[in-house]
Each structure stands twice: as structure tokens, then as C-alpha cells.
Amino acid sequence: MNLAVAMLFYCLSLLSLLYLIWRFVDGKRHRNCYILDYECYKPTDDRRLSTKFSGEVIRRNKHLGLNEYKFLLKAIVSSGIGEETYAPKMVFEGREASPCLRDGLLEMDEFFHDSIDKLLQRSGIPPAEIDVLVLNISMLATVPSLSSRIINRYKMREDVKVYNLTGMGCSASLVSVNLVHSIFQTRRNTHALLVTSESLSLGWYTGNDRSMILANCLFRSGGCAMILTNKPYLKEKAMFKLKTLVRTHHGSRDESYDCCIQKEDDKGFIGFHLGKNLPKAATRAFVDNLKEMAPRILPMRELLRFSALLLMRKVRQKWSKAGPGARPLIDFKTGVDHFCLHTGGKAVIDAIAQNLNLSEYDVEPARMTLHRFGNTSASSLWYVLAYMEAKGRLKKGDKVFMISFGAGFKCNSCLWEVMRDLNGRGNVWTQFIDNYPLKNLANPFMEKFGWLHNEDPDTFFVPDDYEIPD
């Protein structure tokens, strides 16, 4: 009798242990975060900013003097942006100086209706199966919220969980991914719709403050919608799997907080201020982010090699009493196959390339995206990713390192694993990917308005057919 009881107790204990192991393994499977599909927004051709039309928009600003014109055109020429980017409708109607709420809503509706419609249709997932909606648009907050606008259009369920983020800046999409990933830790079998864009209509600057004029040169219309899931049985259909994500926020430092901020100039014109200390703040946030990210994504041999080089450098410096010298570079290519960089501007891409010792092949997707679509704020990363996909670069098992910067000041990064070979069929680059990469990224503003590039006031001249406002 005692033996039977003991055997029963043993069997029950074993079954309990097996159940706990199954729960642990099954729980980990449900905590994964996959991207099933994504859709980048390509505005219609009537929203395209050609060189000629961009010059007309600049000339319409009655507050710009000669020096501001020279500064602005010089910034455009050196920005890395081409003449096929897109702007809101009100710019083409000549109303950028006096936009209204309707302009901002129209800009968002055009993006919602195009990209979300295509995404839901291609994925085969009806709106009723969306469990979580996360939307990030920094510079347009409405009542009802923009997320409610999406729910109303697609008639989503009453119990859909909704998160509406504003003020997160260019790094907002990775904040949204982090939020979805956190939700997946406690909710099984969940579909999430993530929508990321930026509204330019109400933030177009019409003053003459140089630190705020730059925003008009860099930011362009765009957006991306994606479906994420933690359903294990959809693993084989997924495009990407999130491996790790790191967020760095330096908002407690006044210098970092003030370097990238929406405000009014001294004449009351609202715009986006980009301070001279922005590069320093970005570098500091970038370095701190990499310190936490590197041990998560690099092989141990690379970490040991880097540590040994640092130690040898310190010993040599101590014995020779020499200066600090150049810091040894850690090789991120030992754990990363592709680099997906935020298209904040040519200087941003150049700085990251230098700090990570990247080749032109590595930064080609970011450079071409900046040239073709401009800085589309939080959605820019996904245009870069789509370029890699359209070029056939993304193969099963590859690792993609995403890096983004945003107001606050923030640096967010993450690592994705490619779940299957991707060919980019039907994405935003399909129609013109064969024309890239371009060998010449020079902006035609130099040819059209190069005379404004001359810094010497004594030799400055204006062509007869060019009118400068009073």
C-alpha cells in the first residue's frame, strides 16, 4: 500500500514538473514578437516636390531676407534629399502659411486609407481580428484621437486595446514596437496594428529663424502601417522576429532636452527648433545606447577582443605617458548583417557610418531612402528596411540592426531576425528600385540656384528672372 502511494505521488510530481516545463516553454513561445507584414506609404505624384516647385515655396515666404535665402538653399543642396519627395496638399495650394486642422486630418486620412487598406487586404487579417492598436504621430493631437479615427473607419471591436502616442519624435516607431512587445508578454495569441507617421501640415514653419528653417528642408510626408503578432503558429509566415530592443532617454539633461524642440520664434511663428548642440546630444545618446546593446547582439569573441584592445591601450598609455589616442572600434558586423539607419540627414548617416566603421554598401539603403523620400520622421526606418527587401538583401537568418534618434533626446535601437527570404515584391520601392543606387546624389538646387551659394556679398548677384520678396 505504501509503495502504491509512493508511486502515485512520484507520478503526480513528474506530471506537475512536465506541466510546469511545458508552461514555461509555451509561455516563451507566446512572448515572441513577429512582424507579419508592413506597408510604407507612397503619396500620389501630385504631392511630389520638384526642384522648381520647392523654389516657388521658398520664394512665397515673405519673411526671408537675402541671407536666409542663401542659408536655406545651401542647407537643401547639402541635405542629401532629392526632388521626388512628398509634401502635404496645403503646400501645393499655397496655404502653408495659414493651415487649418482640416489640412492635418486630410494628410493623415490619405495615409490611413492607402496604407492600412493595402496592409489588411494583403495580410488577409480583417479589422475584427486586431486586438491592439498603437499609433504614434508626434505633432498632431486631436479629439477624438487619431487612433479613434482609425477604429471608426475600420469598425474595430469594442474591446480593442488602444494606445495613442504623441510627442515622441523621429524615434517613436521603436517606442511603439517596445510597447507592443511588452503587451505580448501578458497577452497570448494577439494581433497588433502599429501605425507610424508624422503630420507636417500644422508644423510648417513660415518664419526666418535659421534653426527652425532647417525642419522644412528635411521633413517630408510618409508613414508606415504594420501588423505584429505573438501567435506561434504564424512564425513561418512572419517576416521578422524581434530579438532585443534598447531605449536610451537623456531628457533629464537640459542640453539634450532643448536641442530638438517645437516652439514659437520671437515673432510668434511656430516651428521645430534644431539646436547647434544637437550633434553632441545625439552622439552622447548613441554611445550610451550602444554600450547596452553591444553585449546583447555581439558574439563573445568580439567582446573579448574589444576588451583586450582597451586594456592594452590603457597599459601602453600608462607606461608611455602618452595621450589617450584613438579609441579602438568594436566591430558590429560580427553580430549584424544589415544596418537600418534613421534618415535624419546626410550628416546623421555619415556620423553613424564613421562611428560604426560602416561601408558604403552598409549605408546605401539609408542614403537612397533619404534621397528618394526624405526624412519621414518615425516611419523612415521602414522605408530603409523596404529598400533592403526590394534589393533582395534580406535572407532567412540575417540580423538587421535598427538605429533611430528622436526629440527628448532619445536614441532607440533594436535587432530583428529575418524569418524567411524576402524579395520586396510589391513594396513601396518596387516601381523604381532598378534605378537605385544612384551614383550622383547631388541636389539640382545647385544647378538652379547655385548663385545663392556664394558667401561673398561683394560678388553676390541675382539673375534677372529671379524675384526676391521685399
Features:
470 residues, alpha+beta, Peroxisomal Thiolase, Chain A, domain 1, nine-stranded mixed sheet, 15 helices, globular, disordered C terminus
Describe the protein:
This protein has 470 residues and is of the alpha+beta class. It has a single domain, classed as Thiolase/Chalcone synthase (Peroxisomal Thiolase, Chain A, domain 1, 3-Layer(aba) Sandwich). The chain has helices spanning 2-30, 51-60, 66-77, 89-92, 101-123, 146-154, 172-184, 210-218, 254-258, 278-297, 300-320, 346-356, 360-373, 380-390, 445-449; strands at residues 34-40, 48-49, 85-86, 132-137, 161-165, 191-197, 223-229, 240-249, 260-264, 270-274, 338-341, 399-406, 410-418. Helix 3 (66-77) packs parallel to helix 8 (210-218). 41% of the residues are buried. The model is unreliable at 455-470 (pLDDT under 50).
Structural topology:
Elements: H1 2-30, E1 34-40, E2 48-49, H2 51-60, H3 66-77, E3 85-86, H4 89-92, H5 101-123, E4 132-137, H6 146-154, E5 161-165, H7 172-184, E6 191-197, H8 210-218, E7 223-229, E8 240-249, H9 254-258, E9 260-264, E10 270-274, H10 278-297, H11 300-320, E11 338-341, H12 346-356, H13 360-373, H14 380-390, E12 399-406, E13 410-418, H15 445-449
Parallel strand pairs: 4-5, 4-6, 11-12
Antiparallel strand pairs: 1-7, 1-8, 2-3, 6-7, 8-13, 9-10, 12-13
Helix pairs in contact: 3-8, 13-14
